[in-house]
Amino acid sequence: MANVTFSGPTLDKDVTVYAVAGDRGTLLSVAKAANIAIPFQCQDGECGSCLIKVTHLGKNAPKAIHLTDKEKLTLSVNGKLSKETLAKAEVEDMPPAYRLACQYLVQDEDILVEFTGEPGVE
Ligand code: FES
To answer: pLDDT per residue over 95-116, tens digit each?
Structure first.
């Protein structure tokens, strides 16, 4: 089971969602199901409007490390993914802080998701 805690100015307080196996999907789909208003447009990794900041909680190694090719490109173009940060993700299994909610597949781990409510702004 994954505890996904959402934090953003459009929420009165942080909201924790319990995403169970087989019911996880993307972070954007988990947010939508919980009525968390993370901005989005294309839902396909191309516009960058669903930019979020993810912090892995707990002591276990992070699991949601893999970035899709579209996520890599869009984050890079928007200045949110440096070559060094990408190398750390791909070589050292250190996930980058900034992600796209429509591309991020929720894993069995606890995370904090921060968003501003402004499209493309973390
Ligand atoms: Fe466009 Fe996620 S909604 S990149």
So the answer is: 999 999 999 999 889 999 999 8
Q: How far is CA 120 from CA 26, 40, 82, 93, in A?
A: 17, 9, 17, 25
Which class is 2-114 in CATH? alpha beta
Are the beta carbons of 30 and 22 closer than 8 angstroms? Answer: no
User: Whole-angstrom Cα distance, residue 20 to residue 122?
Assistant: 26
Q: In what order do the strands lie in the sheet with 98-100?
A: 15-19, 2-7, 111-114, 51-56, 98-100
Q: Is residue 26 in contact with ligand 1, taking CB distance under 6 Å?
A: no
Per-domain residue ranges of the chain: 2-114
Interface pTM, i.e. ipTM: 0.99
Q: With a 6 A CB cut-off, is 45 part of the ligand 1 pocket?
A: yes
Closest CA to 115 of 3, 33, 4, 1: 4
